[in-house]
């Protein structure tokens, strides 16, 4: 990059020879800007992602309770963690919570998003109300629902025909149900927003053409709206999966991993090991398992969805 | 292409650097010493009781050349934060703790100063405190803590009006408790409120029943590493009694969805939906805050029922004996620290603690019991603790911190039927004892 190029005004149509020459040298390494451009991001990534990851990897081979010097113990933490039935269970629970999140939130937020993209009466007001849960912190949301779902003073006490004795947090199925419900309540608005934007971007001509061809609302939705939202579905699903795998506060406040270990998902189990039992080695091993699992899952999603070669959905328009 | 070739090398370099950093960071922890700014730093759990700690520090600073500074860590993360700083140059000289297992890792890591020399200088540092309380900060025969707040025995609280309506009295024996449960159930109230969602309230039932059936020795044995204690006939008897109580519907069916910490289980008692709740002595202050009328008129309290044929004395109590100040070995001003600790049995300290509703465990506390906000309650508690042959520290604080989660999970699973007696025994035998 010479000063010539940066200082030359981009006057189209009156290119000077100097400008042309520098343009020539630019095309010599097109698509590969100077390495210096990558330094800030690389450094940031090194310090905040790679370095901690490496430290965690090293720590997973050590025994450390936060006091004194860590001691190398070889594979001890790993054999303990991989043999631990609670760990295996926590991985399945994490996957279950993630799958439930995606399965419930995706259809809901697509419908809400497409609806919110329209021009109906009161739409703007209602959209704002739907959006409110997203503005609250996860902690506040969890505390709120814990109180609302109290079996003696909350909603279950008023609707015993539905909730029975209201022991929602005392059984595995209902405790997981509550976790899925609360994250749905909190995060659906965000994904609704993604779909609202995407639905607004669908060209009206498609619907007009479909109408002329005699397609009803349902056919329009399934044959125009949904295919046009494909890329947004992939984006939103990846965000949901990442969110699901790292679910923590809701578990911490709503169930504390209980009853017993029935909702102890991996991220919470890691916290328990490292920061409640001060077994940082085992905590680090669990963290690495989580990193590896999340990497594999995101690779699969990227492969299957074709996210890496995402094409415009507007070809031919 | 050049950049591609360079990148792995860069990553490798960065990784090595990070590794080196982490290793050196770990290494520096061991050599650290208290930064000496000519003061002693006193670290306490940040809450409403800090008022007294501030006052005592101010009193100390009036006469001492070496000044004391009070540092507080607010909220529930105290133990986590303490453990991360205690071996660094930011470590305090004196710090708040719960005695027992909460300081055991520090003793093992050789960070704490045994207080035996201080006690030799001034025997009052031991003799002016109730022995059952003082002893819960003794590790391996050496004293490591001086009591510095109020005692919190666990009591059986009740709603007097609910008991009257059902025509029953607070139970004095286990059999009475079982029949009371039956009567109350027939009247449509939950006999006993239990915040099972928090897990530790469930644990209190185990602590008392084990004590009444087997005496304090069983738990002491188990804590000392003799895991066979858990499969003894007494242990099995205690478990079958607890099971009988749960199966009798004493706690209702949804106790795992109820929490103490969000005010739900105390509200059950205050509103007359439940008759009893087993809880630490702070329950009284909690009800005064949440349900003032009920605390003044309807709230009753008794000791835990006796078990006929059990080995435990019915005067035994369990709970949090007190909080303690422990001293770091590397403090630069042991004389000043000793002087500071002596204030913990002063009249000023006792009066200030009583004024905010804490019940100190010094021998001179008795003189001031009538000055407390609720003298009857203070007398009851003080006599109870003073006469108790044994004051068992809560299991989750007697064991080292790594055992807390497994203990909480086991008691919850036993109460909700996920594990049976054998499962519970196995879980307790798997606990780390050091």
UniProtKB/TrEMBL annotation, chain A:
UniProt keyword Flavoprotein, yes or no: no
PROSITE patterns membership: ABC_TM1
Renumbered residue ranges of the record's region Disordered: 1-25
UniProt keyword Cell membrane present: yes
Chain ranges passing through the membrane: 35-62, 91-116, 128-148, 168-187, 233-254, 280-302
Keywords carried by this UniProt record: Cell membrane, Membrane, Transmembrane, Transmembrane helix, Transport
Listed InterPro entries: ABC_transporter_permease, MetI-like, MetI-like_sf
Tree of life domain: Bacteria
Residue span, ABC transmembrane type-1 domain: 91-301
Subcellular location: Cell membrane
Primary localisation category: membrane
Signal peptide extent: none
Topology within the bilayer: Multi-pass membrane protein
Family, as annotated: Belongs to the binding-protein-dependent transport system permease family.
Name the record gives this protein: Sugar ABC transporter permease
Native source organism of the sequence: Streptomyces lannensis
UniProtKB/TrEMBL annotation, chain B:
Keyword annotations of the record: Signal
Pfam families membership: SBP_bac_1
KW Magnesium (keyword) present: no
Domain of life: Bacteria
InterPro entries assigned to the protein according to its UniProt record, in alphabetical order: Bact_solute-bd_prot1 (IPR050490), SBP (IPR006059)
Annotated signal peptide: 1-20
Entry protein name: Extracellular solute-binding protein
SUPFAM superfamilies: Periplasmic binding protein-like II
